[in-house]
User: Fold these one by one.
Assistant:
Number 1:
Amino acid sequence: MRAFGSAIVSAIIAAFGFTGSASAACNPSSGIGLARVANIDTSNGPLFGEHTGYQRASNFLAPKEVVLTFDDGPMPGVTKSILDTLENHCTKATFFSVGRMAIAYPATAREILARGHTLGTHTWSHPLNLRRMKPEAAVDEMERGFAAVALAAGQPIAPFFRFPGLNDNAALLTHLQNRKVATFTVDVISNDSYIHDASRLIEYTLAQVEARKGGIVLFHDIKAATARALPVILAELKARGYTVVHMRPAANFEPAPGYEAQLAPALAKAQPTGKGRLVPFYAASLRPDAAIAPETPETIVAPEAKVYVAGANEGAARKPVPKRSAAHASAAASPGKLAAVSTAHRPPRREPQTAIGSGWTTPFSSGWITTTAAPRLRRSAID
């Protein structure tokens, strides 16, 4: 991997003017930009990404193309910083939000869509054992997650889903297929769940992207280190000749009936009195196409239907996922590399802890979610 020192990182930050301001218009000459939009036809319930044991759809990315994805949010301070960085770089991403988090922070969920990004889901409460749960409980986790994110966003969302921990199985993939939902695993794992130093995260992520020459990249928008590292990662990807592809659904998702009434009281508590209002699921979608330059090329991705059989992809996927060892290896790298990271994109160290209906709180000091009313979420490099 090409190494560069702290002086060069500082120069990149100064040259691109990473201020973290949403009001700063993007600069196409310096930002990584957007190479094209991939309109995903989800009617056959396709599966994308390398890390799965099931038959996936063909790769729709060319060499040196990346898709930016963020899991587990929204978390206001971190997500806002990431949105600002993406805007400064004139590019777009896909967010796989947890239902409880979206209900807790509906304004941030709405902002994701208002800025022209794609919003999918990551279950209701992020259980890492989803594939081992009773089928009815697992389906409820998925359906409740979709309903919660759509309700919080106040408009239809994408029929895009990612399994927590990438723990899929044939029965749940078939359910999503019947619901016309595309499932996304990943090609490149940033390992930001375990690398808490932004300089090491930059180095590790770029090495993984280079090793595969692009692909669907996994980040988390609940990690402060990710927000700090992202400006330099995007600048360096541009310098290395990579481009960004934005995924957008050909049709919106229709939540299952019955969930809106269950979730509306929790959403009402999360919204300040007198501000905001509940919007029906099927209100007109913003789909702010104006946020994407009209000259941006668009392609259609329409995979054929697959029968999900365990082991269909074992020869090419199910690679061991590095966990803490990756963070340790990265930390052992030369201490002089990538030492300087923009502090302008540093989210607040701590936000006032906000009570949620489930009893969750979100201290930024740890960058993770804790709960007093539900089982504690375990950490995973691919959660």
Number 2:
Amino acid sequence: AKRRKTLGKMDVLTRQFFENNENFAAAVNGYLFRGRKVVSAEDVKELDVTETRVDKNGRLVKNTRDLAGRVVVRRVNDICCVIIGIEDQQKIDYTMPLRCLRVDSMRYDQQLRRIKNEHRTKKDLKIGTAEYQCHFSKNDKVLPVITIVVYWGSEPWDGPHTLYDMMDISKDSELLHFISDYRVNLIDAHSMSEHQLCEYGEKLGYLLGLVKASEDRLSMREYIKTPSKVLNDYETRALAEKVVNHTLPSSEEEDEDMRNKAFEEVLKEEWVKGREEGCEEKQNAFILSMRKNGIPEEQIQIILKDAKVVG
């Protein structure tokens, strides 16, 4: 069967980043435990990333997570096993709660089929009992499933966070008591404080900081002009460059002039984007913003000239 979608460059880079168990654990600790080191790289075990089920017409349906599904195991008085998958989201998806529900239900169904097949093979359930009829004993358990959505878009997420948000129903309706909700576990840097970004560790925290700064290209100035050792890591650097869509200088290899040049390239792109949109007011506001942020007039004129506009 064909994959659900063809992976683009961003998907591949994100997959590479989270295939590093330390980065995967950082996402789990940041989102689920507010930065506490509950899960270590050693606790992360890779799973098959493809969920498979049979639809009502008997056809095989496969769903491949954008990123590797994992089992996170942590011993806290007892063994706790959780299946965690990370979805890579580059644009706002107004169907996200249903997407997560579908992916998670397929993972539960996969577990259920495995348990049923084990009982059929072992023939360990008493014939004629309810357990035999459903091939699932009252002592059988499934592992909890959690999907974490990492949003890389430059615009703040304005899509639904829960299944309720997708419904045309009053929040105080009595019917809600009978309707199960489903929440999106969303990592949206735009809604985070600096403290919250730090909860995701150095590498992922830096990347999420870039995403937050992408709301305003000028806010990216400190990220680009300030050296960061995390860019010496190949996976982090490649993903960071895709987020800003430009080559970034590393902390050890490049000097201040090269960091200034990288920042200028980002500003040129923002100006050209405003020009293509035909918004003169937006262009003038952008020039004013550059001045307010302390960018020398000479540098502003160079940026405008290189972008083939008259300042």
